[in-house]
Amino acid sequence: MGKLKQCRRVLIIGGGLSGTTLSYFLSLNGIDSTILNTSSIGAASKVAAGLIKPITGKRITLSWNASEFIEFSKDFFQSLENKSGINLYSEMNFLQLFKTIGERNEWLSRSSIDSLKPFISDIAIGIEKNSDIKAPFGGIYLKHCAIVDPTAYFEAIYSVVAASATIIDEKFEADKLVLDNNGVRYESEQLFDRIIFCDGYRGYLNGYFSKIPFKPVKGELISIECDDLPDELIIGSGTHLIPKGKGQFLFGATYDWDDMTPYPTTNARNQLIKKLKNIIAHDFIITGHFAGIRPSVQDRRPVVGFLDEFPQVGIFNGMGSKGYLMAPMLAKHFSQHILEGTPLFEEISLSRF
Ligand SMILES: Cc1cc2nc3c(=O)[nH]c(=O)nc-3n(C[C@H](O)[C@H](O)[C@H](O)COP(=O)(O)OP(=O)(O)OC[C@H]3O[C@@H](n4cnc5c(N)ncnc54)[C@H](O)[C@@H]3O)c2cc1C
Q1: Nearest C-alpha to atom 50 of ligand 1 is from which residue?
Q2: What is the per-residue pLDDT for 127?
Q3: What's the pLDDT at 56?
Q4: Does 54 sit in the ligand 1 pocket, CB within 6 Å?
Q5: Which of 250, 275, 294 delimits the end of a domain?
Q6: Mean pLDDT of 147-176
Q7: What is the CATH number of the domain that holds 103?
Q8: Is residue 184 domain-shared with residue 314, that is, in the same domain?
Q9: What spacing in Å lies between the alpha carbon of 16 and ligand 1's midpoint?
Q10: Distance from the CA of 127 to the CA of which of 24, 282, 294, 322 falls in 20 to 30 A?
Q11: Which domain holds residue 313?
């Protein structure tokens, strides 16, 4: 395959968070895109809770590149709000509940670590006596957390990229794709300079990228109604209770590495009800139950880049459980790579496989 010509038109497969953020940053650099997207059951972006949170996991560590991602995603989602006139991003305090005395001690000792300090607000004094929340071991407030409303995000991004992107409700079929020295031909007529797969968890079925160790993770959430809970605070205890306004909340999500059926299950619903009853002191009504599959990779990093053997075929995938945190900044980073050949972060580069 010879040297590729400069990129002007891109075919993007998948119109979730990854495909749409990429299309947005390409459009800022004058690159048009066509997005083929089927709204398949199990796709992650539209069922996601949309939580952006810098500290994660049982080990209480800072996410990779957390400060940069937090700042970038805030600017991105707020500028999308300004451009579209649609509210989609809310900064919110996060109350992390301690499940045991041991967990409390661990949090208290780790909260003095320099890299974590900027993200920790205060010990939640008196929370043990709060009559809405069950917190016998107390809790701690975290800063720089936010919620993106996925439905509002898609309404906004579709309106903003409309001038430079054509979004087609169609399934990509590999036998319609022809690669040649000029780029990519799809359905024999349409010529593109690159094709980039943003096909989410279904990436593991994509023959071009069989060397990537995908490890998709199913997640389930319930939506509930409860008039007696605080409306301006995310509450976390391994699983998150997220206010959606007017007494509506989302609670989740579960993690399941074995069941890849894209449907809600009774087992997960019962698990979530049990966990929720452990942290709130009020009755609630379940108003919905959703499932999706996170596009994760074994080393838990995104996967971005072009194939050595087919340099016009790329991937932007593997956002795992942190798409709303990482996708905007990585989409800009990848678009600069496409336009100017700037090197990709080693941690996310396709070349690591
Ligand atoms: C239950 C749950 C809760 C989550 N909560 C959070 C959270 O709070 N915060 C956070 O940051 N992240 C969260 N995530 C993760 C986040 O949703 C993902 O990281 C992100 O949405 C991945 O986006 P994507 O565009 O790569 O994949 P997807 O959203 O899955 O999009 C892929 C798209 O490609 C389409 N597609 C696939 N194959 C084809 C084909 N052949 N032809 C055409 N179209 C195709 C699919 O239909 C889909 O629309 C959650 C995920 C789940 C499942």
Answers
A1: 48
A2: 85
A3: 84
A4: no
A5: 294
A6: 94
A7: 3.30.9.10
A8: yes
A9: 6
A10: 322
A11: 9-46+152-214+298-352
Is residue 138 lining ligand 1, measured as CB closer than 6 Å?
A: no
Report d(CA 325, CA 69) in Å as an integer. 6
Atom nearest to 242 CA in ligand 1 = 8
Q: What is the pTM of this model?
A: 0.96
pLDDT more than 90, % of the chain: 82
Q: Decide: 201 and 269 in contact? Cβ < 8 Å.
A: no
The tens digit of pLDDT for each residue in 303-333 reads 999 999 999 999 999 999 999 999 999 999 9
Question: Which pLDDT score, from 0 to 100, does residue 41 have?
Answer: 84
Let me know whether 133 and 179 are in one domain. Answer: no
Q: Is 198 in the pocket of ligand 1 (CB under 6 A)?
A: yes
- For ligand 1, whether the C-beta of 86 sits within 6 Å is no
Please tell me the residue having the least CA distance from ligand 1 atom 10. 322
Are 305 and 282 part of one and the same domain?
Answer: no
Question: Which residue spans within 130-276 are E strands per DSSP?
Answer: 139-148, 165-168, 177-180, 183-186, 190-192, 194-197, 217-225, 233-236, 240-245, 248-252
> Is pLDDT at 36 greater than 70 in this prediction?
yes
Asked if residue 187 and residue 177 are part of one domain, the reply reads: yes
Tens of pLDDT, residue by residue over 17-28, are 999 999 999 999
> Is the residue at 72 inside a domain?
no
